[in-house]
């Protein structure tokens, strides 16, 4: 089984979003883009209700499901635009990423499933020859921040990891990256 990767180039990030939208629907592309911009774990991301978002202050406060830690996330313009567009297109929805599947029982409101999102992400990743799943959004954001020069401690804090070593492994900083740094940073 191949390890899930962070997506390391803007072209690959956009290709994933495009294929998700074209082949599986805008909702999956929105999950991808929103996840890249918030670094939330998939279960926390899918459980976002419009009532939990303060669009005036651009804030979303969450108690993380995995860690139980409270976090407040400032929504950047991209994430906020997704919220506003989805709300205007689906004014009756309770969840940001609400399922409209006819398989649901009448009256049962729920977000799209983690399994469904995972399958769509994997299919697109396979097509692009990338190992992608729902963790790839968080990993890719962390990698992009690190590659842009943010200290690993900062990236670790954003991802809410307990150590920088966990963060480095998580975002895919590997031996080849470290070896390349010797050529990139001559003093």
Verbal overview:
The chain is mainly alpha-helical. Helices cover 52% and strands 6% of the residues. The chain is built from 9 helices and 3 strands. A hairpin with a 4-residue loop joins strand 1 and strand 2. Helix 7 crosses helix 8 (164-171). The mean pLDDT is 89.
Topology:
Blueprint: H1 10-24, H2 26-38, H3 42-46, E1 53-54, E2 59-63, E3 70-74, H4 77-89, H5 114-128, H6 136-147, H7 152-158, H8 164-171, H9 175-184
Antiparallel strand pairs: 1-2, 2-3
Helix pairs in contact: 1-2, 1-5, 2-6, 6-7, 7-8
Distance between the termini: 40 Å
The biggest beta sheet, please?
3 strands, antiparallel
Order of helices and strands: HHHEEEHHHHHH
Number of helices: 9
The whole-number mean of residue pLDDT values reads 89
Q: Looking across the biggest beta sheet, what order are the strands in?
A: 1-2-3
The 3D shape can be described as globular
**Share in helix:** 40-55%
**Beta content:** 5-15%
Low-confidence stretches: none
Per DSSP E runs of 2 or more residues, the count of β-strands stands at 3
- SS-derived structural category: mainly alpha
Evaluate the radius of gyration.
Answer: 17 Å
